Amino acid sequence: MRLPARLALLSSMVALVPATAAPPVIPPPAPMVRAALYAPGRYAVDSEATKVHFHVKALVGGYEGDFLAPEGSVVIDAARPDRATVDIRFPVEKLTTSDASTDAMLKGDSFFDMGQYPTIRFTAKDAPLVGGDAPTPVAGELTMHGQTRPVTLSVRLVGTTPDEAPGLSVLHFTGTMTVERSHYGMGFGRPFVSDHVDLTIDAIFRRG
């Protein structure tokens, strides 16, 4: 068979082979948008329902009491509904142990020095908002007795519930944290009174 004839035969055979369809183009998956657990906005602290309980061990027994009547807020940005900015302040004046002499000692110069440092403050700029029973670590800063230190608060977000007025809601969280008071210039009484202070927080914020 001559070469031109062979080329013609080869061309006709190729023409009979069915064309293979190009594979379909699969678009990349759309980014997952996490549903907001809590409505964006500013949640003001409920000063009557919120408190921090403290407990300090001592050689004999221990000391415990509450920080009451806080001010502050949790702010949730609509652009980042899974994060929040926290700023809450407790007046040392409202510290109570149910014993007047102990209250006076703690508010005095040896401990909180209320006259010079009247407020305890906790702030967090990028606090995660996560639901569920497992506690979530929240990194922030604690200012006490004129000293500001990084701390980690272990938080469990209880959730939100409808408020009396339409469109309002309640953000409720509990948390725990341990601090060393000597890091804040309050080492008086050691070693007879522990350096470790255990804090338990029960906080409610209302969106307005």
TrEMBL record:
Keywords: Signal. It comes from the Bacteria. SMART domains: YceI (SM00867). Residues 1-21 form the signal peptide. The keyword Transmembrane does not apply. Residues 42-206 form the Lipid/polyisoprenoid-binding YceI-like domain. This is YceI family protein.
